[in-house]
Amino acid sequence: MVKSKNNITDFFNSLPKNIFSGFVVSLIALPLGLGLAIASEAPPIAGIIASVAGGIVVSIFGGSNVTITGPGNGLVIVLLGAITTLASGDLYQGYLFTLAAIICSGVLLILIGILRLGILSDFFPSSAIQGMLAAIGLGILAKQFHVMLANTSIKGGTISLLSNIPKSIIDLFNTDQQGLVIAAIIGVLSFLIMLFYGKIRNKYFQLVPAPMWIVLFTVGLSYYYEFFSEKDYPIDKSLLVNIPKDPLSNFPFPDFSIILEPKFIGVVIAITLISSIESLLSIKAVDKLDAKKRRSNINKDLNALGIASIVSGFLGGLNVVTVIARSSVNVNNGGSNRSANFFHAIFLVLFILLFQDQLSRIPLTALAAILVYTGYKLAAPENLKSIAKIGAEQAIIFFATIIGTVTTNLITGIITGIVTTIIIHIILNKSIMLFIRNFLKTNVLMFKEDGVDGTYFVSVKNFSSFLNFTKLKQKLDAIPEDKDAIIDFSMCTFVDHTVQENLLNYQEIFTKRGGSFEITGLDAHSTSSTHPLAIRSVFSFNKLIKIGANLTKRQEELKNIAKQFSWDYIPKRNEDTLSLNDFVYFNTKSIDFKYNTITDADNTFEISDILFSEGEFIAKEVVRTTIMSINLEHPIPKFTLDKEGLLEFIYKFAGFKDIDIYNHPDFSKRFFLLGEDEEDIQCFFSKELVLFFESNPYYHIESNGATLLLMKKERQASAKEIKEMLDYGLRLYKIIDMVLKPSIC
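RESULT FIELD:
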């Protein structure tokens, strides 16, 4: 009950900020909603209806916290194609058919949410999604560039529209119609406002979003001609926004007469596919921005988006999706709960009811300029550069998706991207059967290590890609985000870019919420590029990284740890491991090499990852772990110290004696101490040393007389654990040095 009261109090306390944030978002949503509807060949009011329906419905039934909903960029191409083709060129009839498709898509979204199929978004390769978004951007830019130059006559597909851009520019310079020239100038100036808005650092100027500045500029220009100029407003009504005089009546009714035709079903599937992908990507991105570090209920949000799309379709609006740009504006202006989405919808209703005359003065060229800028951002060359840096194969996937999309449609395009990714993965794995066999294997094991606040350890084996990422995701979602998690890929032969990008998202969320999320086991994999998120595979250890080149994030952290102590860090492998054979632990094991070595200038301390194997033939197992060795100035007894446990219990039955330390019964109960020279060992374990071991975490510790070996787990340690091991080893060295100086033994 107290919690409920606190929630209500918090809601009302944050209400002023959410109202303000909703108002600011509405200033962006108003011109953008009009523009997206016009770009789709739908009535301008359709975009506003989608924003209002989404804002009200999703704020009530949604599962997200700070997202804003409305018409999305990604659907422009799908809706444009649907409206222009479903009725064979009759745009209004095509619009009615499309409304029916939007409603059917809403039903499918609800079904996806009920069946908890939000995870399907994880089955799309990252580069293919980026290619799809770039293709959408090209489509928007190609169509709207002509409208920005006041040319609404050029039609066709994306390639045809792009090739006709020079023609639109030439036609503008050759026209003698002053109205078209002025409309085009307004379009170009509006684009320049969008382009340079971010470079103006005046805090008062930034209070008004760039799209609203365009609205104020164009409406103000219209009033100038009406009140201060002797000439009439030169822009023809066909190039102005058409807002119905009574927007709350005469809603168009969707036409379901072709519901069973293949082309209609194709449109429904396309709308559902792009709606779900755009929304899920936006929800994930906005969750990272949430100051309260909350995670959205994705399936509940899909239900709400489906309901909102049905409502919007019956009222004549576009489909409703979660939008990243408006959501980020909401967060930046203090929006903290779903009420901001609700108020943004209310302000849009007020704008439409109170400012119909002003909105009808906005030139289509100005709204087109906003969309040209949006399309450019989606298809910017910088996006290709970023993807190419990850690896040449990612650029191939990116281009394959773009080509498949612009030459056919969005569904074919994304399928092309997926198929291209699979083919590349098969080639990189060098065998189609190996690929299929590994893909079908259950490859994720998770357990919680000892202690109430123990670390969650997740081991991934064989093969990890976008195709089987859900197996890993299910485990990761079960880990509390304020705890420590280690994801180990040392037994995994292949890790693709999509998996690593998703893991980076988890890492950011865990860090925000007070936990830690570390990835280990990728240091010995060969890579497709020097990018930290490049595909990693194990085909041959001859391809191990060179010094200073292509370090993983963990290796960068190890390098920084060494730098903090002014020590050396050597990532490459070193096969000189003979000194380790002197320790009991490695007597029955075959050490292959060590790598990722951190050492001080005097070679007293050394931390390194090692790869060793135990067993033979079928029973052979390869293990990677992290050890620390400490070279001592004076000889000490040979011993093995470990936590009392089942293995040590078996040792006793085998005849090995657990050495008791006099006057320290608790120590003898908690630790298993093994060695040949019992008297020397008892003398060496002074009260200071015993107290140190009792008051610190457990480590497996061995002495060969001249060197100490420290190891915690039979796995690679995370960077955090290496810091702890380093601190432990340094303090242990000081204690031993203090024990040896009096030479009491």
